Each structure stands twice: as structure tokens, then as C-alpha cells.
Records
---
Amino acid sequence: NAGVTQTPKFRVLKTGQSMTLLCAQDMNHEYMYWYRQDPGMGLRLIHYSVGEGTTAKGEVPDGYNVSRLKKQNFLLGLESAAPSQTSVYFCASSYFGNSNQPQHFGDGTRLSIL
Amino acid sequence: GENVEQHPSTLSVQEGDSAVIKCTYSDSASNYFPWYKQELGKRPQLIIDIRSNVGEKKDQRIAVTLNKTAKHFSLHITETQPEDSAVYFCAARGGNNRLAFGKGNQVVVIP
């Protein structure tokens, strides 16, 4: 049982480049989330999805886009990477968002923007 | 939205002693409070959680207490061991159904 899988694990980009981070879950979870983790800042929600075909903004959505074309996948896109987006990105999923179900996290993607 | 604060930022304890981390939250509608442990370079992992209709929950050496009136909840680790060294995050699910995380506490267990 893989749980939540994130690809890639590491990536270095130049300013202005674009890329997509992939999150896949095999637990049939409805809700999926993208967080960024910066030193001393905890986990901050970027975007989330309450089901296939839906997306919503979180706490820090600027500069990112997301898509949930399939229930098991949640993609995070950076159209024009900036150094401020250097961070560790975590994907998470849960059965539902309003039934006190825990969120399960992936291993993270470490992204550096030069 | 919900705002969660954690104190202290770093906690050092002697092996075998207890560690307590306290979090405060702002949204009185919050009803779910998980705690996550994150070891260096790894994913956050849920270690214990509590619902708002319960005041205390225990799982072996770990316990969580919730004071809804004062809007704070605490993680208690007894008989600490070196493998308890990690960053611990508290979170609260507010009225918007989203988890708000605290900034984390570094716990260092000194052998």
C-alpha cells in the first residue's frame, strides 16, 4: 500500500522556468491538499481539492495552479518559478475534510529555485 | 480563519523526563486537533488526535489534553526516549473545514 506518492523528490529550477509536481494517492480519498513548508513557518496550505474536478485556494495560492482531473491525482504547477518558491512541498489526502479524518502526507518534494 | 500558536519553539529534556507542548487556537468552532511528528527530512506523521467532545486521550506514552474554554490543547510525552527527538506540529480544524498548523516545536531528548 503506497499511500501518498509525490514525484519528483528533488528538483532545481532556474527563475522563470515552469514545472509540475505530481501527487498520487491510492486510498480512494476525496480530499487532497498541497502545502509548502519553510523553516520556522510550519505547514501552509497552497491549494486543496474536495473531489475530482474541483480545486480551491488555500492560505498562500499566489504563483501556483492546481488540477484534479482524476480522483487519485492532484497536480501542482508553477508557471514561472521565483526564488521565493524555494521550499519543501507536501501533498496530503484525507477521506473527507469535515469528518475529522486525519490527513496522510507524502514524502515531500524539495524544490530549489535559482 | 483559524490561527494556531505553539510554545515553546524548542524544548530540551533529559531522557526519561516528560515533555509538554502547548498550543492555542483562535476559532471557537474548531473541533478536531491532530498532532504530527516530523523527523528530519521526512514526512509529518500523525501521532495522536482529539475531537472537541473529548477532554483527554492517551496512547501509551503520548497523551493530548484539550481545554475548550481556554482554547488550548497540549501534547504530553512521558518517559522520553532519544527517538522522540523531532519536530512536533499541532493543528486545528476550524469552521472553514481546513487544518491550520502551528509553526512546530523542536524537541531534543538528551541521552
Note: Chain B has a mean pLDDT of 93.
---
Amino acid sequence: LAKTTQPISMDSYEGQEVNITCSHNNIATNDYITWYQQFPSQGPRFIIQGYKTKVTNEVASLFIPADRKSSTLSLPRVSLSDTAVYYCLVGPFRGNNRLAFGKGNQVVVIP
Amino acid sequence: GAVVSQHPSRVICKSGTSVKIECRSLDFQATTMFWYRQFPKQSLMLMATSNEGSKATYEQGVEKDKFLINHASLTLSTLTVTSAHPEDSSFYICSGGKRQQGSYEQYFGPGTRLTVT
């Protein structure tokens, strides 16, 4: 399983766009990049998944450069309720999908 | 999306007793379920992969005789912590995999807080 590296924490003001980066230098050809959000004492919640270029859904966008060694999760106009830990995971999307969670990025949204 | 439930949400037990935690996929069939453990202020650690109708695959360092996993149906997996000790106190989270629109998403349960006294 490819290892991921994220900043430990970051603060952002309410209403701003937040960009969370993740490094995955050893990503394999068949690996996808998946982002999860976790609130305290809750299970992680799926945010978005992508393989290359850009993916967008109703809550976030995921930007993946051509070499796929990093990715950026973009949250538009964050609110206080977006305060959470965000995990970036890399792994094959087929098979048994064992996921290895890194330390994650604690995002704190400030009023 | 898809919903995974866990029962109980919280449990307190005495040292030396066993505790069973249930994980259910409510609106989809999960041929594979996963069990994680999370200590305070730490990340999730994968404990084992549970496959319906077969033995679970445990991660290195996880005692299979202590953490018994059963996946009897496509919607239910159970984790039994046997002879629990205070160091087993943790947040246990399960997940189920679902293929959807070309991607394979893993949906997590709400977690079970285990406290061993």
C-alpha cells in the first residue's frame, strides 16, 4: 500500500476555499486516490475519489497532477461544520481494498 | 451512498470478559468488510479483513485468537474481543466495500466505543 504524507493541521476562516495537499510518491499504476472526512467519535465519511486530472462532486474537487505523486482536495467556502480530520488514501480500487490510513490533516475552520 | 451500522455504539465491560460488536451493511451487500481500531488522537489502524464465508485475514501484530471475526452473511460481520483488558479500550470501526459506478467505495460504520474497566 502506498504511503501518504499530509500536513498535520491547518486553520481556515469560514467562507474561504480550503486546499488540502497529500503526497504519495510511491503510488502504483492501479492505485486510486481517495479522501475521507472524520469527525470526533464517528466513522470516516467518503468525500471523493479520483485517478488522474480533476474530479468534482457536490462537496469537493480533487486535483491530481500528471505524475500522480500528489493530490489536492479542495473544499469550497468552508463552514464551521467542516472542522474535521481529512485523510488521503491510496490503493487499488479493485480487490479487497485494504486501506492504510495515515495521520490525516486536522482542519479547523475559524469563525 | 450506503449505510453501515454498528451495535452497540458504546460498551463498558469488566476485565476478563468478552464483548461482541456487530457490523451491518443496511442497504447493500458487502462481500468484504474491514475492522479498524482507533486510539485517541490517532489514525485508524486496520485490524483485519473479513470475507463472507471464509476466515478473516489479520494484519501483522493483531492476535486472531483475541479478536475473533465472523462474517456469516453478506450484510453482517461480528468482532468479538475475548478476555478484554484495559489496553483493549478503543474505538472500533467497521467498513464495507461497495462497487458503484465504476469505483469501489468503502463505507464506514459509526464506530463502537469500548471501555474495559
Note: Chain A touches chain B through 22 residues (CB under 8 Å).
---
Amino acid sequence: QLQLQESGPGLIKPSETLSLTCTVSGGSISSGYFWGWIRQPPGKGLEWIGNFYYSGRTYYNPSLKSRVTISADTSKNQFSLKLTSVTAADTAVYHCARRRDDYGDYYDYWGQGTLVTVSS
Amino acid sequence: DVVMTQSPDSLAVSLGERATINCKSSQSVSHSANNNNYLAWYQQKPGQPPTLLISWASTRESGVPDRFSGSGSGTDFTLTISSLQAEDVAVYYCQQYYSAPITFGQGTRLEIK
């Protein structure tokens, strides 16, 4: 059974860089899927951040593109999210997830999520 | 971006009754060439990540009870729960994947009356 688990600091200061890692078990991130990040501000809806393909292709939400980097460490079966210059508006639960397939950008496996709070 | 608007924001339905959630997109999310509807539905229970229920507007995921069904095309879509069970209490989200960036509806909270 595929499992995804997010990890990283739960509290960061404004203007700092948010760094999260998603560890995948039960499957390989090099197996031909897209892997993505989706966030959810407390009590609010879902916002797609971006995704990547193991071959190196990355796609980002234009609203965040200037601040986001998604990368992978295939040796550890992990992928990461970096979001620079954070503000309180970036406070959210951050989920990593697997995109189902090449034909549709929807997500069938999700991590539990990790809450990141931006506060001084 | 395609704006997805769900209605109602919250819904209370009696056990065993039908629940209907609507999702409207600001532009069509259906592809005329292949008749595919690029619309998914998720269920999110408190403290849990979203769970994929339906893709392509009407294709149920494996293991999803058949009381859940999706319909619609173009800009108007519906998630129907034919006979509400206690375990269906959750927030439901629609998501379009016709146009990048993918976008989600604001969510509909479903409760027991």
C-alpha cells in the first residue's frame, strides 16, 4: 500500500523559507507518476502548489511560481517543497500527494498533511 | 484560473435520505473532442486528508460505495449520495483538471439532520 508522509518544521518566521519533505513508501517516486504538493489554510479550501515528474519536469501554480521549488531525491524516495519569503498567508496544512496518471491531474494518494504556521 | 463554486456551503440531511452537492465551473471543463469531463470529487473527514471519490465526473474509485454517484458536464456537476450514512459526514470538494492550474471548490460540509 502506497503511503506518503510529510515532515518539516511546524513553525517558521515571516520572510523565511518553508522546507518540507515527503517520504514515499510502498512505491517508487521513479515509477512513472507525478507527485505533488497541495495546501489547505486552516478552515479553508485546497490550493494546488505544483507537481513534478521523476524525469525532472516540474509544474507550478502561477500564483506561487516565483517562490516555489519542488525537487526529488530518488535515492531516498523523497521529494521536497521549498517556498521562499513566506508570510502569514502561507500558514496551512501542506499535503503531498500522487497524481493518478498522465491523463488527469487529480490525486489518488495523499499524505496526512503537516501544519506549517508562519509567525514571528 | 477556472473558479469552482459549490452549493450549498453546508447541508444537513437525515440518515437514509439523499444528499446532493452541486459544483459549477466558471468555464467548461468538458472536452468536446473526447467527451471527457475533467472533474473529480473528494471527501475529507476531520483530521484526515482528502480521499478521491470520483474522477471524470462519474467514475467511482475502487472501494467507494455505490451510493456515491457523480454526474454533469460542461460547467455543472453534481455529487449525489443516495442514502446518507453516518460515516458520510465530511466536507466534499470538487476539483477541475481541465485547465492549469487545477482548482478546487470551496467545499460543502455535510452533516446529519
Note: Chain B has a mean pLDDT of 97.
---
Amino acid sequence: QQQVKQSPQSLIVQKGGISIINCAYENTAFDYFPWYQQFPGKGPALLIAIRPDVSEKKEGRFTISFNKSAKQFSLHIMDSQPGDSATYFCAATMNYGGSQGNLIFGKGTKLSVKP
Amino acid sequence: GAVVSQHPSRVICKSGTSVKIECRSLDFQATTMFWYRQFPKQSLMLMATSNEGSKATYEQGVEKDKFLINHASLTLSTLTVTSAHPEDSSFYICSASWRGLQFFGPGTRLTVL
């Protein structure tokens, strides 16, 4: 019940295309869902995050879609660029009034954007 | 803002020696820091949660006597890998909690010969 399932494991997209990564969870106590971007040899960087009281959040080319009833959320990268090539991790946690609980990570998606 | 640093970025040591990795929050105070381990092409595995001024909470299967964690101040946590062996070679990443978010350090690549 603590798992976050992420798919696909790898994704190849042409430059300018849309990259879509999906995640699903079971624990309805999760109330904060961040996405992290990680380049080889670097630590993960927070990309965008959403709370379950909204169905969509957009920041630039990155959009999270959240389906509370289905317990699913997805990351959409519009106009994908070669510089977006990285591994993306979805995560979930229970965020208690500013003191964040442990992050439960998905297994990651390696995105390659071809020029 | 919310920058986390780690030192060293890379370390190579001989089997049987101990290695200390530092994690610092540079522009904020973090009451909670986390230590992760990441194997190649895999996700992050939480090792322990470190709270300032108290003992770390270790995840199941993580040897607390082997991976010593100290969180002596609101901006510094250290991970010491004691009596390192080749199987301890990995990428170690820390994160610090601030305003409900976790910010990650750049990671430390440990190679044990």
C-alpha cells in the first residue's frame, strides 16, 4: 500500500513531442505528489508538485494531471527538448503541516528526447 | 533558495576504512534530513531519517552501526560508512526538509576498492 507504481520504465520522444509519464498509488493518506528530475551523476531536483485538491497544475512546459478517484497522476512535458532527457521520478508523501514525511518514490522513467 | 550541498562529491577508499559524507543546507535550517542510497538505474532507497539533536531513524534492513548518522545542527548532517566494503559502493544522496518540501543534495559517489 506504500508503493507508487510508475510507467513506462523508459520513453523515447522526438523533439517537440509530448512526453507522458504515469504513476499510480494505493494509500489514500498521501496528500502531496512531487515529481523529480535527475540527470546522471546528480541529485534529484524538484520539478513540480501537486496536492490532491486540484486536478491539474501547470508550470511552463510541465503539467501534472491528477485523478483522485483513480488514484493516478501523470506528468506531461510539452514541446519536449533534448535537454529534458533525464530520469523522472514521481513520489508521494503525507505532508503534515509543513513537516514532510518520507517520500515514496516510483521506480523512475528514463526519458530520451531525440533531436 | 533551498540549496543543499554534499561533500565530497566523489570518494574512493580502501576496504575496511571509514568514510564521512557531509550534507549541508546552505540557506535554510532543516530540522529533518534524509539519507538515500541509489544503485545504477534504480530509484532512491531511503536509508534513514535524521532529526536535529536526536537519534536517526533507520529503515528496515539498514545497519545503524555501519551507517552512522549525526545531525548535530540545523544545517549539517553527516553519514559515516564504517568499515566500508565493496558492496557499499553506491551513490549516496541526502535531502533536507524545508516548508514541507524536500530538497536534495548533488550526491556522493562512493567507490570502495
Note: The mean pLDDT of chain A is 92.
